[in-house]
Amino acid sequence: MTRKQRRLSLIGVAGCVLAVALGLVLYAMNDTIVFFNSPADIQAKNVQPGTRIRLGGLVKEGSVQRGSDQQITFEVMDAQAAIQVSYKGLLPDLFREGQGIVAEGVLESPRVFRADSVLAKHDENYMPREVADTLKKQGHWMGEANAAPKTQ
Amino acid sequence: MLVEAGHFALALALGLSLIQFIVPLWGARANDPVLMAVAPAGALAVLACIAFSFVALTFAYLNSDFSVLNVVQNSHSAKPLIYKISGVWGNHEGSMLLWVLILALFGGVVALARDSVPMRLQANTLAVQAAITIAFLLFILTTSNPFTRVLPAPMEGQDLNPLLQDPGLAIHPPLLYIGYVGFSISFAFACAALIDGRIDAVWARIVRPWTLGAWAFLTLGIAMGSYWAYYELGWGGWWFWDPVENASLMPWLAGTALVHSTVVMEKRDALKVWTILLAILTFSLSLLGTFLVRSGVLTSVHSFAVDPERGTFILGILILFIGGSLTLFAWRAPMLKQGGLFAPVSREGALVLNNLFLATACATVFIGTLYPLALEVLTGEKISVGAPFFNFTFLPLIVPLLLLLPLGQTLAWKRGNFLGTAQRLYAVFGVAILASLAMLAFQHGGPVAAPLGIGLGIYLVLGSLNEIVTRSWSRGTPLSVAWRKARGLPRSTWGAAIAHAGVGLTVIGIAATAWGVETIGSVRPGERLSAGDYEVRLERVIPRVEANYRDDVAILTVFGSGRELGTIETMKRLYVTRGMPTTEAGIMTVGLGQVYASIGEVQADGSIGMRLYYKPLVLLIWIGSLVMAAGGGLSLTDRRLRIAAPARAKAVPPSAVPAE
Amino acid sequence: MVIWFILLAMTAAAVMAVLWPLSRHRAVAAQTDPDTQFYREQVAEIERDRERGVLMPSEAEAAKAEAGRRLLRSTGGRGEGFAAVGEPALRRRRAASTLVLSIIPILALATYEIYGSPQLPSPAAPAQQADNIDLMTAVAQIETHLAKNPQDGRGWEVIAPVYLRMGRIDDAVKALEAAIRYQEPDANRFANYGEVLVMTKDGLVSAEAQGAFEQAVKLDPGSPKARFYLARAAAQDGQVEKAKAAYTELLSASPADAPWVDAVKQELVALGAPPAEAGQGATSGIGPEAIAGMVAGLASRLEAQGGSAEEWARLMRSYAVLGQRDKAVAAAHRARAALAQDAAGLKTIDTMAQELKLTDAQP
Structure pTM? Predict the structure, then answer.
């Protein structure tokens, strides 16, 4: 083989691998991406039941109910709407009523969400970024210093 | 006083770096050895200044000097000594200081490697290194100054984030940074070669140990971070495809490719342009990783610095260095001489494939990590790209690479014989397939991929062993001769075989996670919970008080197949100063597997929620990584690779040997 | 002063470290050419491989020939020698030395001048540190005790002022809250709680704090602290006459040597004086003129260049704290005009207006 042929065959192989990778990426983008929604978004965007989403908002005060065998339900709300969340498992250390969380799972009906993972903020100053953004947009966010006393 | 002197030393380092940047470049252009000699002197002076300033900050932490804002925010006088020290880099400002310290350290070692690096290359390299130092010193001094003072000094500090009060996290950042920053040397050498317009096998020989050392440390750092997440976050997962993890995985993938391509360049004088590009990209990805973690653009368990000003500054550094080096590359690379020829089926050809797959896999991780950020900036839509995406794109690219690995390792340089090579491996292949089949036959449930993964791992381990055996033993050779021959093999051959076997061990560990069992339930004292063949009994829950936290400790007795194995403790911990709860998992190692328990809150009826896992062979994931790093380390000790170990009698300063 | 000597000595050492190689005339020791060495080793390695039987003799010969060719190529291309002697080299060296002598001291001192704080004293003397540690252990003990017995109101009451001294205001708020919750109602306790709340809001008497003070007055109509802050609340709400009356009343009810008398008099002066000079010198270390100046600066900047909703809100709050309600109202109006396109910004302004009770500032 001449130098040119070798180079062409190398480019050919590289092209194949890249094409396969691109195909995988595009396919996965359609299939595995999860959108973030707040309770209000679910109504506004009319998210279909059965869709996998990340749900973010505040845990409504007094809504947490612990069933038998670690079955837990609570309500996640933002300024405009609330949605029932059911979850089986251990809640994260920083899960509290009145605080921001992000849950990932499947929307079962427009009012009920089944979570398979729940994330809470990871230190006392930190609110999940998506939740903070949503609340900011809805005008209920005044920075950490002012928000803190309100939850008490 | 010491704090102020440390602060001033940092400012001095800035001035020195500017000299180290200007004068040697000028000297190399004018070909003036006197000016070039400023480079090593400058690098050592910068190292001394930054090291002094790091020591000053450490002293402030040790003495709990609360007139330093950084100490107030991240320390507490009641904290144990080790976390007072690790608190120095357990925060944004201090970790950036550690970053430049390691940068200066590498500069210093290059400066001492006087005899083995051509003078012009050294001068240019240290000048590029100085440019990086300038950028990061400016970043520290203007936006993240660890020496900011407060008056009046508070009486007590706010303590370190409890998640970071852990021995794993005390050594994770230094390891990771040595890896990240180590690639800056490859980058600086690449830029220097481009500035000089001259690159050859000698360059590859000089660069390879640095790359290898950085790679080994990065491997250790990633493994340590992964193990920390596994036992500290209490979810039992060891890799989350979290953006911060990806930020360290990307340079690792590119660095792995670089380690391999420099071999080709050294042995065969080929792949020059690609190697240079790869060296630039690897460090660029390290910078990107620093940006992602340090700017707070990510929502992640790791980000503990959120500040738009800093983000913009690092973005500026990122654009300057990536843009600048790629421009330099586009301008000078066409002038480089073409390298040697080789047949597609050869060791070189296999290494090209290795690079191709690694680079492509790295690109998919890159897309998956940055796409959500780009989309949010452009459209405001928030999405998350999680494990399914990466499993779907990354694995199909890595598995063929692993399948080809033992083949490539066995192929000859320049022109290989595919059939002959395959013949040398057929026994290995057979054993691997048999193992897979046996697993398939005996497994109870679980996905089909798992036995195949185990087979792949066995194939990799045996392939590496086969490499050593066939190189030292052929039919009829007495064992003693073969042993002598095997011991006589170059250390880099042993290193490569060991590192590749490490990959195999990790693959086995990952594949075996498919057989892990998870149970969640509520238990009361005296009750049992089981996961697979293992069972735990909750004995009691007792409170316990320590210096800066208090625990609710659940004491569990572990049973395996009905036999009592011992007790483990898992706890809910409350750090008093920050009022922050954490979960400490209870882990019992059984063989290479682990029984892993973590508890939730105590319920009204006196029961507690518990999550119990049995994870077979899980330790192999990290053992494999350690073996990989050890292989890299062994290669480094190969006499031929040592920077200043020429075959002559003159004594060499020991500090000129990297990573020892 | 000592510190400057140390810093100068460090600068001198740094400059010397770099000047030293420039001062040497023959800087380059004869360096073994790394190229030659590399290829020599490569040939030796090929030889070893041949002995071990990894390479066929013919292949080894070919490989050796290639290594030799490359060696020739690498040395052949570099005929030029180093330019270390002669007039230009000398001039270069002088220029470089000048660079070193100027850049390092200037850059280092300038940077340090901007960011450093050489005037600050060294950390506290060991004796005081020992005190701190004693206090710390005491705090830690109380904290552990409280963690076990969270309903011990007295414990919370004891630890609150300590938190305050340590600058942990939020913790102090929580502690006093608990103290109130678990103990009999007491005027002093409510007044202290209110005061801490005022501190968290930088001097603004929030509705929450006002509630606490009202409770205190209900329990003990004479409570000077509560009456003082209620008067200030009135001033911040724009009810200047009511505030003046309340302050005067408090003054007349207090013994002449009471510790708060000066503070009350200052407030009265502030209310009587022209608005621009009003201030809250009683609690702040910065003079009222300085505060007024800072607020005026913020105001003129926002007028000229506009700003974020948070900045407008800060301006409103500043005026309210200074007792200049009319200006706060005007600022709210201007903010609404400036942020008309920004729904979230308007919300922030509205919330702030509500918090400051600027009722007449509603759109």
Answer: 0.76
